[in-house]
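Researcher: Sequence recovery benchmark, item below. Answer with residues only.
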């Protein structure tokens, strides 16, 4: 995949006339999208759970950094009130994480937390800011809602049940919103493939005592092998967050943006492969790939 250089805003830039609100900007696609949109003349309200995670972003009149936990309705409402004077015409729901582990050993609370962030938080942000987008749009179709799902919103893989389910829900919500919201707001569903991330570091923050739970079970060896190989595979085959962000920013700038944006070769060919293969063969390939044979 061709690497896309980071776009930086020129010095002494004027305050932009259009702004985008992005959730989950501490790293990855969200962080890269901040630079890409600023380079295209957007102002950006960048958010993350901890304000300190946004410290690496270049300051300027086209950037506002805010702390936001999308699972906290009070923080969402406070952010809405604090940004009332900003001409926000685009909302990018990017915040989320992936819970890894076999479904048999994952708790209801772990599944609930996955949905609270990836689905309920996304929906809460959409409801809160849709009136803002409509108010600030100068003409019908100027407003943008970008729902970042995953290629796992169209198919499922082992050891990612909660994440698979949450992204399937995001796909359904985005498609339904597009049918209901009317032509004044364009809804863009983004379906990225695998991208280079700090997989093990991120996972260790959310899986709690799962390593203890899998000990002595059929999943112990499978999970350890998965952890050992996943990081290497991401670094070798995964696309760059910058390239994905560039595709999203370009789509947001189009007068008629795409309804669905699949990013990454794997996001395209894996879906087609699943459609072509018999279900039994597809499942056999997944089981073999993830060590469930």
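Model:
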């Amino acid at each position: 995949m061709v690497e896309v250089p980071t776009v930086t805003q020129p010095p002494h830039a004027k305050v932009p006339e259009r702004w985008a609100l992005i959730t989950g900007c501490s790293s990855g696609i969200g962080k890269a999208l901040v630079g890409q949109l600023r380079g295209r003349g957007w102002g950006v309200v960048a958010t993350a759970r901890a304000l300190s995670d946004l410290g690496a972003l270049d300051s300027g009149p086209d950037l506002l950094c805010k702390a936001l936990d999308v699972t906290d309705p009070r923080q969402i409402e406070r952010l809405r009130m604090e940004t009332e004077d900003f001409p926000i015409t685009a909302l990018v729901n990017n915040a989320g994480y992936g819970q890894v582990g076999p479904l048999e050993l994952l708790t209801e609370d772990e599944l609930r937390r996955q949905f609270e962030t990836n689905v309920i938080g996304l929906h809460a942000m959409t409801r809160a800011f849709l009136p803002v987008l409509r108010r600030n749009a100068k003409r019908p179709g100027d407003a943008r809602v970008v729902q970042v799902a995953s290629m796992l919103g169209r198919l499922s893989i082992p050891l990612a049940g909660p994440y698979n389910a949450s992204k399937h829900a995001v796909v359904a919500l985005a498609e339904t919103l597009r049918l209901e919201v009317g032509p004044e707001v364009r809804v863009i569903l983004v379906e990225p493939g695998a991208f280079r991330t700090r997989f093990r570091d991120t996972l260790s923050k959310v899986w709690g005592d799962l390593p203890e739970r899998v000990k002595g079970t059929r999943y112990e060896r499978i999970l350890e092998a998965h952890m050992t190989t996943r990081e290497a595979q991401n670094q070798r085959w995964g696309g760059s967050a910058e390239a994905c962000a560039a595709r999203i920013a370009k789509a947001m700038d189009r007068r008629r943006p795409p309804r669905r944006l699949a990013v990454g070769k794997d996001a395209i060919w894996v879906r087609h492969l699943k459609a072509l293969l018999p279900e039994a063969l597809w499942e056999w390939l997944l089981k073999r790939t993830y060590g469930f044979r």
